[in-house]
Amino acid sequence: MTEAKTPGRRIIFLVFAGMGLSAALVPASLPLVADELGVAVPDVLGAVPALFGGLLTGVMGAPLLVRSRPVTWVLCAGVLAQGTGLACFALAPSAPLVVVAAGLVGLGFGATEVTASASARALARTATTALLGRLMLVVALTAASAPLAVLAAGHAGAGRLALLAATGYHLACAWRLIHDASFRGSATPVPTPHRSALRRLPAGVVVALFLYVGVESILAGWSAVTVETTLGLDPSTAAIGTSAFWVLISIGRLASPWVQRHLRPARAVQVCAAVQTVTLGAAIVAGPSGVTVAVVLALAVVACGPCYAILLGHALTVVSDRAAPSATAVLIGVGAAGGALIPLAATLAARASGTRDAGAEGSAAAWIALGAAALLLVALARTREHAGPPEPSEPVLSPRPDPTTVSPTTTRHP
């Protein structure tokens, strides 16, 4: 590594850490924000699908923007959008504005996710996987620790201070991006999704990815609210649920290589989906509150951990090196769509039931997640039967995780 590249790498690590902040702070702050606004928690739960809907828009829109703007320009705009959204989220005087602010955070997150990952690849030159693996670790560590700041601020009587501090962090990152010449010179074009790439991918895996990200997004988006309702914690303490989510899903991701050594990709995700189905069903049967519910939901989160990398790697084994960037962009978009639409279905189902308490909304979300996990089993059963070997005329990529997801992405997934 030359000395000239070092500043660019520092900036990209800071940007990825900021993505971890955004991914964790919105769901972690929902009970506290609802309490400070004097509204019921269900009134602000629309922020979850709004966050992932914004993420989808950013993921799909960033490749179009870079056709007429430099990648660093779009990256800086994404960072600023995250900071602005968090500030609006902290200062919003009503529940509808909280939802809109969450959408702005997601929009910035999506644009940052795509452009920062492309820039990271350019900075790495070689050993891209190693660099991106470290960047994903930074996201996970930041997302696991950020809710603790919400907890501390809430107990100090300044619940939204953590959100404003994160805004300052994003503004500082944007300033560094603008003034770092070595980073500006490192960016490369962002892969654009094409329908032709979608046709090359196994249909069952694409459907499974949509469903899986939806399940994970429900578990992530409702993490603080779930802890509040199941364990009876007060709003200023409920943020610990989001920290727990990130720790648990990181454990699952660390187990992914072991799982892949012992099971074929489709079978591995089927096993994880079966665990999710059983644990979500057990949580529904056990009732809306209690330690048992929290424990079985924790097992569901761990079971989610290995799935994304396995699904994406399995899909990319049938794609040539030349088509891989476009196929990856398509898969990111499919995952983001699942992350937006399945939580939205959970929110709409709760509204249709006419109930307005967090426990009832959590039960509706659990039912939707249970249905998605069960469909995931069906989708992968068909994939295992019909997915054929890659075309011999095309070089085959070895399975690899997608480098661009938080939660929400992704992405993340936020």
From TrEMBL:
The chain crosses the membrane at residues 12-34, 46-66, 73-92, 98-119, 131-152, 158-178, 203-225, 237-256, 268-287, 293-316, 328-352, 364-381. Residues 389-402 have a biased composition (Pro residues). It is a multi-pass membrane protein. Belongs to the major facilitator superfamily. Keywords: Membrane, Transmembrane, Transmembrane helix, Transport. GO terms for molecular function: transmembrane transporter activity. It comes from the Bacteria. The keyword Magnesium does not apply. It is found in: Endomembrane system. GO terms for cellular component: endomembrane system; membrane. This is MFS transporter. InterPro entries: MFS (IPR011701), MFS_trans_sf (IPR036259), MFS_Transporter (IPR051788). Pfam families: MFS_1 (PF07690). Residues 404-414 have a biased composition (Polar residues). Residues 386-414 are annotated as: Disordered.
